Amino acid sequence: MTTSTTSFDICIHGAGFVGRTLALLLARAGLTVALVDAYAPHDAVDIRAFSLNHSSKALLDGVQAWPSDAHVTPVLSMAVFGDAGGVAHFGQSEHVETQKTQGEPLNWIVDVPALSTALQEQTAREPCITCLTSDDGLQAKLHVVCEGKPSVMLGQLGVAAKTIRYPQHAIAARLTCEHPHQHAARQWFNERGEVLALLPLGGAEANAREVALVWSLTSEHAQAMQNAAPADFTTALTAAAGHTLGTMTLASSRALWPLQLTQIPTWIGERDGKVWVLAGDAAHAMHPLAGQGLNVGLGDAALLADTLQNFLVKSPLFNPSPTTIKRALGKYARARQAAAAEMSGVTDGLHLLFAHKHPLVQQARNWGMKLFDRADGLKRQVIKKAQ
Questions:
Q1: Where are the domains of the chain?
Q2: What is the pTM of this model?
């Protein structure tokens, strides 16, 4: 929408999945929101798919942005394979036995373009949201930074990030398989710390054969696979997956990006009169092997929206000072920093564990996977934590 208003309750920098979800939550609580997207639109088709948990589904359902069934595939089982016979299986029998989740999928694989379209449509309908390409001349009580990498706003604020660049790149693609995937998500680790994930697509169709690939490889190997002829690429991929789904053929282009672990010590600050807070990819980036990046970011949006609603709507101050705003956001920052650090610790730890080349470590990690596979109670706790 267009408006002459230059003063808003909240300015959100970044119109991605976290930014748009947060904007909808705040607008529907009665706050005026400027949604700033400093990046030029592009026509490239996004071939990724996200693994979303129950909390993320409930949040997106709440803002009417959950995609239609055709673009959402339920995951009924998962299997994780080690590099020397270790394996762990997850099924609905290990699901947390609560009235809320009993009998439901473990999680859902969601088409990125469909989710993006749903969020764009909802924000376009919301009269309290103004979409802008710049914050020039704009006034707001709070600036929320949730731009992805690289973030223009973080650079302007002088926010320093602690970044560890993995010696890996990830390849994403869509593939059609010889055999149905049976709504199972599968993941393979090898002795070089490389991780192959095949995520089911095709909605609820019983015999669906399309999968989304996320293949984290050493950088040199990734470049070679990205440049390989399609037949050579799928031959190598089929072998890496142990021929589990039979012959695979490419159904899309291939996307390649570098992997890194990013942590920012300070999530709240003030510069040039702007009070700011971080959320989503601007605050954290982690290895994709657990598929939890967007779930963590949407968790940020949920708690931040609740915090701001309590502070600015339920107990409003006419003109809160920057100090008052920062103090009110302290609990949010501490809670979400801890959640992001915990998930980053898991993904980084698994990466380091499987990248370790000592034979005794290899034996121990696969032995541990086999023990874990027989520990139903522990598996239920892991699933509960991921929800």
A1: 7-163+261-386
A2: 0.86
